[in-house]
Design a protein that fits this description.
The chain is of the alpha/beta class. The protein is built from 9 helices and 11 strands. The chain has helices spanning 3-15, 18-25, 29-43, 59-76, 78-82, 100-113, 190-202, 215-223, 268-280; strands at residues 48-51, 54-57, 92-96, 119-123, 135-139, 148-162, 181-185, 207-212, 229-232, 244-247, 254-261. The strands form 3 sheets. Strands 3, 4, 5, 6, 9, 10 and 11 form a 7-stranded mixed beta sheet that branches.
């Protein structure tokens, strides 16, 4: 087994696509597929179920991922652990416009390890002038045309209903959403914008009970039957979802999280933090069991 091969495996499990892994590592798709084939041959078992245009981790693959993920994380953290103490005294200015729960907790984790670094956080600010920030974290967009871009993750938007709800099945068609009432994410949030894009595309005008940015009220409103919730798939993998059914809708928008940065600023503590958040995927783990409104 080779380290790159194991990275291919972990990322294939994450993206459920050899093509996306190939794009990340800038190699041909057959190179990733053949590397996984060699790994399966070496382990004498199949790790993925293969379908047209998609792969899915099977039981053997899940077992391997459970073993590898902590080890890969420690290996990937070596450059950070061995890096010299930071001499850059700049305060890092960060604008967060998407996945605010996960990103802020990632920042908390970074601060635990590097308390000497000062970070200034602005959440969901609607201002058009974003040039005062070293980093902008938002869904993929073309509005930051003077920043470089790094795509961190892609997550699928889903619907959230109470257990026993008529829509509580694996998949529904968008036509099932006509005349349904929704508890909608707060205006200005990334999930709100993505939801608007989806409903406009399929020609459905959602009946909005109210706009909510309070997690507790959001969950209680869904459970009380006031409306259907909207969120991101990976945010519902924890026990917090025991009272809910997660519903897939064909053609629902995928949310791509990106970090926008100015190359001239990417040094010292800004580069150090960028590497931490860009390559660690802390915010995709079950240690952040939140229903996501951003």
């Amino acid at each position: 087994m080779e380290l790159l091969q194991l990275h291919y495996f972990c990322d294939s499990a994450k993206y459920e696509s050899f093509a996306k892994v190939a794009q990340k590592y800038m190699v041909p798709t057959p190179s990733v597929a053949s590397s996984i084939k060699r790994l399966e041959k070496e382990l004498n078992c199949q790790l993925f179920d293969r379908y047209p245009n998609q792969i899915a981790l099977n039981k053997n693959g899940q077992k391997l991922l459970n073993i590898l993920a902590p080890a890969i994380e420690k290996i990937d953290s070596i450059p950070l652990l061995l890096s010299e103490s930071l001499q850059d005294g700049r305060e890092i200015n960060i604008l967060i416009r998407a996945m605010t729960n996960e990103i802020t907790h990632c920042i908390f984790e970074y601060k635990k390890r590097h308390p000497e670094v000062n970070i200034n956080i602005t959440l969901n600010h609607p201002e058009e002038d974003y040039h005062n920030y070293h980093l902008v974290i938002d869904e993929k967009s073309d509005i930051y045309n003077d920043y470089d871009q790094y795509d961190v993750s892609e997550t699928e938007l889903i619907l959230l209903v109470p257990k026993g709800h008529p829509l509580g099945k694996d998949k529904v068609n968008y036509s099932d959403l006509h005349n349904k009432t929704f508890v909608y994410p707060a205006k200005g949030s990334a999930v709100h914008r993505a939801s608007d894009q989806f409903f406009a595309r399929v020609g459905v005008t959602p009946n909005v009970a109210f706009y909510c940015d309070d997690l507790s009220i959001y969950k209680k409103s869904i459970l009380a039957g006031i409306g259907i919730g909207i969120g991101r798939r990976h945010a519902y993998t924890s026990p917090v979802s025991k009272d809910f059914d997660v519903v897939q809708v064909p053609w629902f928008v995928s949310q791509i999280l990106s970090i926008y940065y100015k190359p001239q600023d990417l040094f010292g503590n800004v580069k150090h933090f960028f590497d931490f958040i860009a390559y660690k995927d802390f915010f995709l783990k079950e240690e952040f069991p939140y229903i996501a409104l951003s």
